[in-house]
TrEMBL record:
This is Copper chaperone CopZ. Gene3D superfamilies: 3.30.70.100. Residues 2-68 form the HMA domain. One of its GO terms (molecular function) is metal ion binding. It comes from Bhargavaea ginsengi. It comes from the Bacteria. SUPFAM superfamilies: HMA, heavy metal-associated domain. Keywords: Metal-binding.
């Protein structure tokens, strides 16, 4: 398992959290997705044999949320 941490530009409401966590949770290979509202970060643990960090980042961007940086570990 790998983890990606996305630093977001702005998360302004609780519905943003549900929207992002819901979309990532539906992705094949994403084991866990968590939005840290106060720090503006999205953390996702994933199977890199099924999905890539770039695909996770792309999903967040398609939802309309700018990503400032990405760290994969």
């Amino acid at each position: 398992m790998k983890q990606v941490v996305l630093q977001m530009e702005a998360l302004t409401c609780p519905s943003c959290i549900k929207k992002i966590e819901g979309a990532l949770g539906k992705m094949d290979g994403v084991e866990q997705a968590k939005v840290l509202f106060n720090s503006g970060k999205v953390k996702a643990r994933f199977d890199d044999g099924k999905v890539s960090a770039e695909e996770i980042e792309g999903t967040v961007k398609k939802l309309g949320y700018p990503v400032l940086s990405k760290k994969v570990s």
